[in-house]
Amino acid sequence: MTITKKDILTTSSAERQIGIFYLGQEGFLFRKKGFNVVVDPYLSDYVDQNCCDLVKWERLYAPPISPEELDFVDLVVCTHSHFDHADPWTLSKIAKVNKKANFIVPSPEVSLISSYGVEKDRIIGAKADTPINLGEITVTPVPSAHEVFHKDDNGDFKELGYIFDFNNARFFHAGDMCVYDGLKERLRNIDIAFLPINGRDYYRNKNDIIGNFNSDEAVLLAKEISAEILVPMHHDLYEVNKESPSNFVNAIERFDRLRKYHIFSPGEKYIFEK
Predict the structure, then answer these.
(1) Is the distance from CB of 222 to CB of 255 less than 8 angstroms?
(2) What DSSP string runs through 224-251?
(3) CA–centroid distance for 172 within its chain
């Protein structure tokens, strides 16, 4: 399924509605009235063309929108520097066609993202537990353990998740993350939890594929924090690092069968109302 700039901009929403568009992997676009946020947009085949020879990386579907069409977004957010989350080709094209957007990235990655063609004065370096108030939205970075914590010499986290507070709704986008002590205490009053479910194992680690939550852990965390809706992600783009949604549904049935959830298709639009 593809989606166009027109599809997004003609999606009208009431005061208490937020449009959600799935861009693939962990990419999402959130639209609250006229304000547009895109998270982890990976809209090229950069990984396929440039990543390691240990395994074969080949996208299972094309990007549902081109980065050049995102000339209207107000905010671009990246969780960490892996290329399927901070894609040089995608970010450079957005920065070229869109001179109004700000970029939020973990503070240790500001120079790296700037090297992709994003002007440094448009990049906000995010630090864990330090809210970023942009008027239309408040973004609170949350430390991410991608399987473990990674910090720079200043003690700042290289991987982050983010809480997006739209005043009437709170979304948590985990980025690439594993469960750790203290995580659930940071996640209060979350309406939608976007959590990876592709898991981790010995063989992927051997091939330098760093892991995430598995389906059981995602469901149990959503239950612990009483998230209204759970959205699985990072499970459908690469054969070498995917997870069957059936395992996610089985986990829902085993651990929290009344929890609401939504499994997105690439390019799909979903309207959340609170």
Answers:
(1) no
(2) HHT-SEEEEESSSSBGGG---HHHHHHH
(3) 9
**Residue 77 pLDDT more than 90?**
yes
Amino acid at 85: H
Q: Give residue 46's Cα distance to chain centre.
A: 17
Confirm if 60 and 238 have CB atoms less than 8 A apart.
yes
> What span, in angstroms and rounded, lies between the C-alpha atoms of 198 and 155?
28
- Mean pLDDT (the chain) is 94
Q: Which residue has the higher pLDDT, 52 or 185?
A: 185
Backbone angles phi, psi at 136, to 5 degrees: -70, -20
**pLDDT bucket at 51, cuts 50 / 70 / 90:** confident
Residues 58 and 48 sit within 8 Å (Cβ to Cβ): yes
Question: In CATH terms, is domain 5-260 a member of 3.40.50.150?
Answer: no
pLDDT at 240: 86
